[in-house]
Write a structure and sequence with these properties.
The protein has helices at about 15-30, 40-50, 75-80, 95, 110-115, 135-145, 150-160, 190-200, 200-205, 275-285, 300-310, 330-335, 355-365, 395-410, 435, 440-445, and strands spanning about 1-5, 50-55, 85-90, 120-130, 165-170, 180-185, 220-225, 245-250, 290-295, 315-320, 345-350, 370-375, 415-430, 450-455, 460-470. Strands 2-3-1-4-8-7-5-6 form an 8-stranded mixed sheet. It is elongated and about 70 Å long. It is an alpha/beta fold and about 475 residues long.
Length: about 475
């Protein structure tokens, strides 16, 4: 099984990380197995039903044991700590998918590819061994043959020695006065790492390749942290023992910082932050060669994220602001300077205008889009019931849904059957999101089925929800 290390973003809940990862994995599986009888959204549903996540480390601040929580640490950081590293397994998939999707189809390479496109995953690992003692890790690792590709017999067979590096990361220093950090990140102690390496020597001497501290072929991690189920009060000098996980790193998460607002050539007042753009694209299960439309493109953050996820996607943006206020040339430079394929078009106009939508379709050969992904403009308070005014609050999303319905009725669908519409949606404190969602009748006219929603709290007064719909 695998373990994922999450990025600590307080405004994004754990469920966002799970959903982004499973959505990315569904797209990766669909690309790898094109002959599957189900599409990416259906794969996602089966993954959501059958995948399990479990905290690798856990700390209960109210439990009586020797691991004490410093008074300065707020309780929400305990939650962040508990969710920082999680086991992921897919053993229940076959039961939930009636045999269409099986755990055996979900390979290490697919998990790695899915992780690499996720903004809320720092890195992912293949678990080799776990236990309270280093000797247990050595025994399990040798029996598992997880490092056979680095052994002498494998090296002789392939005439190649893999370089390697091992790092130890500790996820809690509650008992260590010299390392007071807790909850927000890991800390590496060189002294403790050297001690651990000595105890792992029976395993490490079987590696025939050289150590490479900069760019090794194999990154090995020793991950340690408090686990309430494994707490002992008999550790050396009365210090609580830590659960130890030996793992091989298989992937790093998406490098969202390369499209941070301060790095952009096209600068706007309210750009969509990179993490949000990646989340929208991943929740749309964007695949290789997909045709992606953002009808409220702005400076094209969504299209940039889509191209970073897969540079084979064909993107089109529609934005009502003229070049006087938003330079399309600078937007294109944001793509070219990152080595990304240019959008097929960055149209000036209102996406509620049927002629503009028809122009967008012509750019992709007159066909339908695989995904419509957007962050509609919204103010502090706009009409929540929909309008014909074009842009304005959640009404913009409602107008888009109505436009999709009109195009569908005319036989020129904007979104292909099975395609996804994923959008942010504002909600003020005190409002009930269920009362604000587009009606079933409105969705039916557009041929859309509601899939799921997730909340992101922006501040004490405003949340934005991610809404996902599937074209039927």
């Amino acid at each position: 099984f695998f373990v994922i290390r999450g990025e600590h973003k307080e405004e994004y809940s754990q469920s966002f990380r799970h959903l982004e990862f499973l959505s990315a994995l569904s797209a990766t599986i669909a690309d790898h197995y094109p002959n599957l009888t189900i599409d990416a959204p259906s794969i996602l549903q089966q993954l959501m039903d059958g995948a399990t996540f479990a905290n690798a480390f856990s700390f209960d601040p109210f439990k009586k044991h020797k691991a004490k929580l410093p008074a300065s640490v707020p309780l929400h950081q305990v939650d962040m700590y508990n969710e920082s590293l999680q086991y992921v397994s897919f053993g229940n998939i076959a039961n939930k998918s009636h045999g269409v999707l099986d755990e055996a189809l979900i390979s290490q390479d697919l998990v790695a590819k899915a992780s690499a496109r996720c903004s809320l995953i720092h890195s992912s690992y293949l678990v080799v061994a776990e236990g309270m003692e280093y000797s247990d890790l050595v025994d399990q690792a040798l029996r598992s043959k997880a490092f056979d590709d680095m052994s002498e017999s494998e090296t002789v067979a392939h005439q190649n020695s893999k370089t390697w590096r091992i790092r130890r990361h500790e996820y809690s220093f509650v008992n260590d006065e010299n390392n007071p950090r807790f909850g927000k990140g890991t800390t590496r102690s060189v002294k403790k790492e050297k001690s651990a390496l000595q105890q792992l020597e029976p395993l490490l001497i079987s590696f025939k390749g050289k150590v490479d501290l900069k760019n090794p072929d194999c990154n090995i991690y020793l991950l340690e942290g408090i686990c309430d189920n494994c707490v002992t009060d008999s550790g050396p000098k009365g210090i609580t023992e830590l659960l130890k996980i030996l793992a091989r790193k298989i992937s790093s998460g998406a490098k969202v910082s390369v499209m941070a607002p301060k790095t952009r050539i096209c600068i706007t007042n309210t750009p969509l932050e990179p993490i949000a753009a990646f989340i929208l694209c991943n929740l749309a299960s964007i695949r290789e060669n997909d045709k992606v439309l953002d009808p409220f493109a702005g400076s094209a953050s969504v299209l940039l994220a889509a191209s970073m996820i897969s540079n084979s996607v064909r993107t089109v943006g529609i934005e009502i602001a003229s070049d006087k206020f938003l330079s399309r040339e600078k937007v294109r430079q944001d793509f070219s300077t990152r080595g990304l394929s240019q959008p097929l078009g960055l149209l000036i106009g209102n996406s509620m205008d049927s002629k503009i939508r028809e122009e967008a379709r012509k750019l992709i050969g007159g066909s339908e889009f695989d995904a419509i992904v957007c962050d509609p403009p919204y103010g502090i308070r706009e009409a929540m019931s929909g309008s014909d005014s074009g842009y304005g609050g959640s009404a913009a999303l409602f107008d888009l849904i109505d436009a999709i319905g009109r195009d569908r009725h005319l036989g020129t669908p904007l979104l292909k059957r099975g395609g996804k519409l994923v959008s942010f949606f504002p909600c003020l404190r005190g409002d009930n999101i269920e009362d604000l969602l587009p009606s079933n009748e409105r969705l039916k006219r557009a041929g859309l089925l509601f899939e799921f929603k997730r909340e992101q709290k922006l501040n004490s007064a405003l949340s934005r929800w991610v809404l996902s719909f599937k074209s039927s």
